[in-house]
């Protein structure tokens, strides 16, 4: 008998299981490690201060970014190991004329937020000269305008997931490499999970199955409006360059470039809504990602090709995460729907849901992210 079962072992589920165990709960983590899960292919960009998304998501993003040092401190205490986390900064660049209008719109959004909230401060996020941008990221085309966020960070999703699982094991989390097939409900309350021929009992269940969540939550009488969005991301190798301090680069065609130590530079990503559960690399996807990367940073033209990763992101119908209790089934919770922002928002989202399981009030109002907000809810 467990206190809580977490279904799904990506970054959201692994964080939830770990934090529940840190809170003293007997915890079971079920993870079948589906091919194409988003955690294994994520870029790991943590740059919420220059997000142009809704105010609710902006606030969640800020808190998510601020939560990382706390989580890393926990992992250090519990011997989790390296996560690849580093403050590297972020560049938002307008390379061509068509990008000047969205660049100006971003500046206006940031100015409005400063007037309303006092952040992001001008010291944290400021416009810089084109040559300053190229000095920070040498392969960059000479931009027309550039904005630098010195607070942005990156994290390696695979390393973070491994660190969470290692730390969770140290906190006596039981890991079973199997998928959850069905939630057991007795008298209006969750009582456990079936996994193949096995029955695991618990008074609480967190469904954190990424794009696979609707299949498990649907029988509980609620429609979780999440579908897979394929993202293809290409890893390049730059010879004889000190790439570890290069910032993340965003232009305004919905792509990015992330650099790591050792000459590894990551370019991404496609946003293939309607892809279904198809984790293939495609010719069109590779063409799109490389074309955009070389438009923004032609100096990467001589880089070698290392690999292409594919992640099936859990994209919700309204672009917001789905967090909190499942109405009508006491003890059942859900945490999914982060789309392309899972490594930014996922750990803190898991922390918020874990607080509910631990009987505490979460630090952020979850009304905008409630599970029953879609018109298909029954």
Total count of helical runs of at least 4 residues: 8
Percentage of β-strand residues: 25-35%
Low-confidence stretches: none
What value does the average pLDDT take? 95
Task: Output the CATH class name of the largest domain.
Answer: Alpha Beta
Radius of gyration equals 21 Å
The global form is: globular
Global structural class: alpha+beta
Instruction: Report the span from N to C terminus.
Output: 31 Å
**CATH domain fold name of the largest domain:** FAD/NAD(P)-binding domain
State the domain count. 2
Q: Residue share in helices?
A: 25-40%
Largest sheet: 9 strands, mixed
Fourth-level CATH superfamily of the largest domain? FAD/NAD(P)-binding domain
CATH architecture field of the largest domain = 3-Layer(bba) Sandwich
Q: Spell out the helices and strands N to C.
A: EHEEHEEHEHEEHEEEEHEEEEEHEEEH
Report the count of strand segments: 20
């Amino acid at each position: 008998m467990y206190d809580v079962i977490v279904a799904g072992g990506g970054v959201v589920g692994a964080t939830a299981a770990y934090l529940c165990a840190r809170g003293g709960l007997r915890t079971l983590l079920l993870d079948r490690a589906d091919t194409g899960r988003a955690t294994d292919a994520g870029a790991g960009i943590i740059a919420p201060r220059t997000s142009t998304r809704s105010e609710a998501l902006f606030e969640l993003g800020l808190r998510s970014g601020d939560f990382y040092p706390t989580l890393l401190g926990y992992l250090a205490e519990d011997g989790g190991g390296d996560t690849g986390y580093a403050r590297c900064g972020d560049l938002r660049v307008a390379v061509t004329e068509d990008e000047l209008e969205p660049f100006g719109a971003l500046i206006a959004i940031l100015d409005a937020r400063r007037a309303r909230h006092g952040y992001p401060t001008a010291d944290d996020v400021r416009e810089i000269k084109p040559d300053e941008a190229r000095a920070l990221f040498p392969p960059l085309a000479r931009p027309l305008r550039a904005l630098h966020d010195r607070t942005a960070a990156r994290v390696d999703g695979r390393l973070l997931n491994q660190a969470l699982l290692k730390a969770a094991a140290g906190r006596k989390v039981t890991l079973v490499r199997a998928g959850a097939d069905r939630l057991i409900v007795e008298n209006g309350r969750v009582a456990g999970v079936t996994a193949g021929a096995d029955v695991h009992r618990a008074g609480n269940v967190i469904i954190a199955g990424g794009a696979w969540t609707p299949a498990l939550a649907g029988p509980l009488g609620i429609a979780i409006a999440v579908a897979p969005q394929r993202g293809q991301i290409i890893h390049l190798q730059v010879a004889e360059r000190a790439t570890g301090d290069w910032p993340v680069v965003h232009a305004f065609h919905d792509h990015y470039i992330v650099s790591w130590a050792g000459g590894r530079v990551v370019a991404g990503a496609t946003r293939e809504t309607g892809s279904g559960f198809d984790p293939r690399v495609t010719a069109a996807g590779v063409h799109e990602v490389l074309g955009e990367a070389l438009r923004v940073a032609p100096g990467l033209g001589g880089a070698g090709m290392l690999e292409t990763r594919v992640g099936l992101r859990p994209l919700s119908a309204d672009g917001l995460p789905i967090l909190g209790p499942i109405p009508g089934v006491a003890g059942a919770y859900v945490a999914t729907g982060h789309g392309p922002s899972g490594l930014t928002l996922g750990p803190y989202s898991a922390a918020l849901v874990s607080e509910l399981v631990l009987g505490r009030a979460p630090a952020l109002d979850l009304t905008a992210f409630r599970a029953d907000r879609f018109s298909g809810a029954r």
